[in-house]
Amino acid sequence: MGGQGIERREILRYIGMAAVAGTFPGFRQWVFACPQEHSQSLPSHVGSDSYQPLFFSSQHYRMVEKLADMIIPEDDTPGAKQAGVAEFIDFMVANRVPVSGSRDIRSTDDAIEAGNELQNRFIAGLDWMNARSHSEFGQQFMDCTREQQNSLLEELAYKAKFKPTTEGGRAFFQMMRDYTVVGYYTTKIGLQSIGYPGLRAVWPKMPGCSHPDDPEHANLREPASSAVSTQSNKN
Amino acid sequence: MAAKVYDAIVVGTGAGGSTAMKILCEAGLQVCAINSGPRMDPDQDYRAHRQVYDLKYRGYGDPLRLQGKAHQEPYSVEESEYSEGRDLFEHDVAYSNAPGTDWYWKRCKATGGKANFWGRSSARFGDIDFKAADLDGFGENWPVDYAEISPWFSKAERYMGVASTIQNRPSNPDGEFLPQIPWRCIDYIIQKGAEKIGVPYLPDRCAQLTVAHNGHPACHYCGNCSRGCDVGSFFSPTWFTIPEAEATRNLTLLTNALVRGILVNEDGMANGVAYVDRGARKEVEVYAKVVVLAASCVETAHIMLNSKSRHWPTGIANSSGQLGKNLCEHLYGNPGYGYLPRLLGQPATPDNIADSTVAWAPRWQNLKNPREEKFIRGYSVYIGGGCGEFPGYYGQIEGFGAAFKRDLKRYYPTSIGALIQAPTLPSSNNYVDIDPEKKDIFGIPQLRFHFQWGQNELLMWEHSKQVMSDLFKAMGAEMWGADDQPNRAGTSLHETGVCRFGNDPKRYVTNKWAQTHDVSNLYICDASIFPSCTDKTTTMPIVAFTMRTCDHMLDNFKKGVHKRA
Q1: What is the model's pTM?
Q2: ipTM, two decimals
Q3: Which of A31, A117, B322, B475 fits a 20 to 30 Å CA distance from B169?
Q4: Considering its fold, how many domains does chain B have in total?
């Protein structure tokens, strides 16, 4: 009876090698996001410029790419661009996959309706961004300077900077941020950046808490590298 | 040629049914097990260490995947993209909700059922549960007491492997345990806070193999449990009972066979079952001396209610009129979530068992005096958190850019949340019956749910929110919020009561051995016999009561009450 269990332990050594993502159409940057497992299936000509969006126009797609990279930029770990987040968003929106919102989906009709609404909200939201940047800076979002783009996002992202006329933009930004966060933290790059322990599938034992002398954990010091973020976050 | 007659038919191969199969087969009986869906294949159907980025839709699934199905509502978590394209969950057979009822009925139809993916919390019931009516005057006692059931709990624990510690709390009887799962940082912090407000926080009874057990390997802490264990390091029919039953060569296992009713002989006794072969779309009959129903609580009642004959005009073994009544369920909901500032910026720790119940706050209310609170009985709370698979707290952090990204990482080890497990009281409002009009695609009359939360469980829900608020303060945590409403009824998957057991044939469906009063060769091996729902989960007790029922049944074979085929 237990024989199966023991045999299966051997199989553990081979796990983690299923290269499924490499076979999906249009997902080349996802493949980039998972370099070790999938490098063999990479076509040699792949580059971000050659990606043909499934849903967005090329202008809108470049905006999605830009916004995602502003939300999760490269710092000491790669950002949304390296993780292929724009492709993810394009794929999910094209396939009407809701990742944000709490709409109750009880049937395929519900799913289609939610998906259509999602597609419309993306288009309308990107257009809103362009209209806003026109009224603020007299040009399209993508033609704005980095500072101008930042200030356009800040009034949508920080409560202290909210304006009464930007409600539609705030809802779009929130959705855009939802898709970006989901798109990033479901790649190997994203999971590595927070140190998700489950990337390693076999632990010889569960180590548990390593602070036996301080059960209340009242005396922990925040490591220096992340203390920096406390500083820079005060805006 | 005469049709084959088995010694026993077992309907359902989950925790109860597969345990019955194993015991009866090992005793030498010829057993036919009937499973509604396909054979579970761990290699294809479990997560098997695939990462979320290996999935086309990153775990969200194709929103159109259920197009054309009779029951299109997607189920959560266990029915994930890891098994997409496999036909493991029931979407062909629809069910009804009466007006005002919103029951969520998740059905895993593959062999092993929901016990492939269960939560593994395995506390013993005690006399505080069995004799609750004596204590607070409400409802019915169980027809058994702890002294009688305790050895069966031991037997189930020894077989399954349950990790915990000795705690000396009469409301949560101790058992025979494997070494506990080591505590994470958050567990120590929660425990210190709980201590300050007089709430216990203790290792749960968790059926997870912290050491190798009965030939099954020790847990390797991959954190994939709720999508199936690839090596069988916690009890599941797929790794434990089903292979053991098959090893006896006394088992015939039929798959994709949807049971529609129990067949009876001239005397109204069971002599087999009729099922729909899903592939061929035709009805088939199988015969046996004894029939065991273990179809998962409400489905057991569904089959019985649909088994009408001149002997049993309202459903088989329903002379008491109690079949389908007394539906109970756990009220689930999140009474508080937030984070522990003292863990900000700490390194991610390999405590990657985010969905294991490492520790919990077992019922502490109404222990000294059964009426010390505004509600009777009591609830338990699971509290968890730490480094999970997705930074689900990101919505709490505003902004964008490098600072946002760094903050997501700083908060990673800190987030915590709670889950209340509150029993509903039996109520005349809560029951299942047969929809008088609707039939499923196989022509079988549909099951219909009638269910509302009652005052008692809603008082527990409010109480738990206050306790969480106090606990968060006591442990120096910041609260982000709590659910406004409890989860939909049905989400706990812990329904009980629709075939309640008791000594009086006029008032109960089965006797104390889970043998129906009316039909002596019809037994029930699932949670439908439990006349009330406790603050504890049902799987381990289902296994324990099934062991006891099978022991009684085998005794009846020995005594000649049941004849071999």
Answers
A1: 0.93
A2: 0.95
A3: B475
A4: 1
Q: Which residues, including other chains, have CB under 8 Å from residue A187's CB and lie 6 or more apart?
A: A30, A33, A34, A83, A84, A85, A88, B53
* Three-state helix/strand/coil letters over A77-142: CCCCCCCCHHHHHHHHHHCCCCCCCCCCCCCHHHHHHHHHHHHHHHHHHHHHHHHHHHHHHCCCHH
Interface list for A 136-155 with B (CB within 8 A): 150, 153
- Residue among B54, B233, B412 whose CB faces A195 most closely: B412
Report how far residue B349's alpha carbon sits from residue B194's, in angstroms, rounded to the nearest whole number. 23
Q: Check whether A14 has a pLDDT greater than 50.
A: no
> pLDDT-based confidence at A21, cuts 50/70/90?
very low
Return the closest-CA partner of residue A179 out of A115, A58, A90, A56. A90
Question: B36: closest CA among B250, B240, B264, B275?
Answer: B275
- Which of A30, A159, A182 is facing B398, going by the closest CB pair? A159
Chain B, residues 375-394, CB within 8 A of chain A, namely 387, 389-391, 394
Q: Which two tokens stand for residue B17?
A: 């049914």
Put simply, whether B350 touches A (Cβ < 8 Å) is yes
Q: Residue B193: which domain range?
A: 163-228+331-426+453-481
Sites in chain B below the pLDDT cut of 50: none
**pLDDT-derived band of residue A39, with 50, 70 and 90 as boundaries?**
very low
